[in-house]
Fold:
Amino acid sequence: MAVWEALLELADDHLVLGHRISEWCGHAPMLEEDLAMPNMGLDLIGTARTLYDHAGKLEGKGRSEDDLAYLRDEREYRNCLLVERPNEDFAHTMLRQFYFAAFMRPYWLAALNSADATVRGVAGKAEKEMAYHIRHAGEWVIRLGDGTEESAARMRDAVEALHIYVDELFDSSDAARMAEAAGVLPVRADLRDTWERTVSEVFAEALLEQPKAAYAQRGGREGIHNEALGHLLAEMQVVHRAHPGARW
Amino acid sequence: MTATTPLWEVFIRPRNGLAHKHVGSLHAADEVMALQSARDVYTRRGEGNSIWVVPSAAITASDPDQTAENFEPTADKIYRHPTFYDTPEDVGHM
Structure:
């Protein structure tokens, strides 16, 4: 276990969610969202790139950001399960985005004091991006939750479906604990209160209730993923794997 | 779609000190979503630092049928253009 692996987990979270939300490009319910979602995807992928590059350098085996993104299999991906959940409908997509951003905003704010200069740099840029993701996705959660009968039912379904993936956000793997002890990354469990506050404020306006946690699905940090990730990676990696070393 | 998401006009101020300029329009359910969409659609390349959104329905426009009577009478009044004196160099860009 090493600090670079904790950075890899974080990078995987961002790449996988960035790819997921980019899948809406050209399919969004309206043009405005067709631009907004890839915007958010690009924020996440930008963060992933910096983190992969840094993780590769710390590992010291000469792996580039492309090697890490395109040449690892499902079992080697360390993202949390929330980010790989399929888009399903707009309610699922916006809730997933909101949950993740509500976690990452306080995470990056805490990382502004990281012992690692690259992490501090990423944090300075990403905390603003996450503040906007919270606002954008949060406003949709409110409007769908407190919308029509149909939109409210879809929003409630999304809450039900995604709830079991929330707890994993606050788990720290062995690698993450090492990075936390070294002052490189913030302690995940410490962010729970802030996350709960952000979510409950939006849920109150959205007329939604958080289910009581009875069961939490975990495993992403050990590479135990849902079937959904395999399909995502196949699509994301196919060009790179079919044309190794290709450039344009 | 226009019943639930009416049209909004978007104005962007490129820099402090300049005026907001009309850049386009979009559909949104309300003013909060309109501002967010304006940010996402019209400021992706650093176009500005301030956004206004205005319901298109709130704009009263001149009648195209009155274009002649509105605007043509000014065409021959060149004395209204301040081109008959020299601007001192110190004034800079006017």
About this structure: The radius of gyration of chain B is 19 Å. The helical segments of chain B are 31-42, 67-71. The first helix of chain B runs from residue 31 to 42. The CA atoms of residues 2 and 75 of chain B lie 39 Å apart.
